Amino acid sequence: MAIHVLAVHRDTVGTEQAAGGSLAGAYSVGVLCWLLSAGVYIAAKWVSAEMPPWALCFWRVLIAFAILLPIVRHHFGDMLALIRARGLELLFIGGMGLAICQGLIFVGLKHADATTAGIIIALIPIITMILARLMLSEPMGSWQVAGSILAFLGIVVIIVKGSPDALLRLDLNPGELWIVAGAFCFSLYTVLLRKAKFDLNRLALLVLLLGFAALTALPFYLFELASDERSTLNASGLIALAYVAIPGGALMYYLFNRSIEALGAARAGVLLYIQTIFIAVLAYLILGEKLQTYHLEGAALIIAGLLLIILLKPKEKTARA
C-alpha cells in the first residue's frame, strides 16, 4: 500500500528509461503496483475480525524484507556503512512509515470499511505538502491552501458520515480516526525521507527501512501474542498474510521502485490516486461494501481540492514569473 512506497528523491521524470522503452509499459507497471497495493486493504479488512493487526504488519514487512534482501546484495557494503553512520534515523523513519503507519491502518480497518480507508489514504499527498511546508519550508501557494481546506472538509464529511450532528455528539468511528493517523504517519515518513537525503540505491534503502520497520513492529506483535486471543493464525489469516507479504508486499514495493525509475517520482506518485478506485471496486466485489452518499460527497471535495493543487499551481508560478 502507499503504505506503502518510497519517495526518496525528487526525481523529475525518468525520461532516459521511459524514452528508450515503452511508456505504456512503464505506466502498466505503476498501475499494477497500485492494484496490488489496493488488495492489501481488502485482505486486511477480510481478516480483521480474526487476525491481530500488528501480527499482519510485522510479518508483512519481515517477509518482504527477506524476499528483497538478496536482490540488493551488491549494495550490502553501502547498506552496512549507512547503518553504522545513521542507524537511529533509519530506525525512526522506517518504523514510522512502514510499521507504525501500517499498524494504525490495520487497527482502523477492524472498525472502518475498506472503501472509506481508500478515500482517506488519498489525502496523503496533501498532508505531505502541508508538512513539507512546515518542516522543509517548501512553497505553498494560495490555491494549494484552498485545495487543502477543501480536501480536509471532504474527510470530515466522510468521518461524520454526512451528518454534522455526529460531530457535535462526537459520534465518530474510531477506526476512521486510526486510518487518518496512519495517513499522517506516512506523510511524515515521506517528508523525513526528503529531509534525510540518504545516499544509497533506492531499492537498497527500501530494504533497510523494511528491516527497521520489522524491528519497530516486533514489540507490538509480542504484546499481541501475550494479550490477544486472535494470536493464532488460521487458514484465512495465512492466506491474507501470504498476499500482503508477497504480491501485496515485496512485489508491490519492487514494482513501485521500477515505476519510479521509468517515470520519475512525480508521475509515478500521481498514480497513487488510482489505488482509491481499485479499493472501492475490490471492496464491492469481494467484501460486498457499497458506496454511500457521504463517500461520494467527501470524495468530490477531496478531488476538487486535488484539482486546485495540481492544476492551478503551474498557473500561479507562471503569473509570478
Number of helices: 14
Q: State mean pLDDT (0 to 100 scale).
A: 81
> What's the total count of β strands?
0
| Distance between the first and last residues' Cα | 38 Å
The largest pleated sheet is described as: none
| Cα radius of gyration in angstroms | 19 Å
Roughly what percent helix?
over 70%
**Shape estimate:** globular
Helix-strand topology string? HHHHHHHHHHHHHH
Count of the separate structural domains: 1
Structural class: mainly alpha
Low-confidence stretches: 7-20, 314-321
Please tell me about this protein's structure.
This protein is mainly alpha-helical. It has one domain. The protein is 78% helix and 0% strand. It has 14 helices and no strands. The protein has helices at 15-20, 23-46, 53-68, 76-108, 114-121, 124-136, 142-159, 164-168, 174-196, 202-227, 235-263, 265-270, 272-287, 293-320. The model is unreliable at 7-20 and 314-321 (pLDDT under 50).
Strand-helix topology:
Elements lengths: L14 H6 L2 H24 L6 H16 L7 H33 L5 H8 L2 H13 L5 H18 L4 H5 L5 H23 L5 H26 L7 H29 L1 H6 L1 H16 L5 H28 L1
Using brief descriptors, characterize the structure shown.
single chain; about 325 residues; mainly alpha; 14 helices; about 0% strand; globular; disordered C terminus
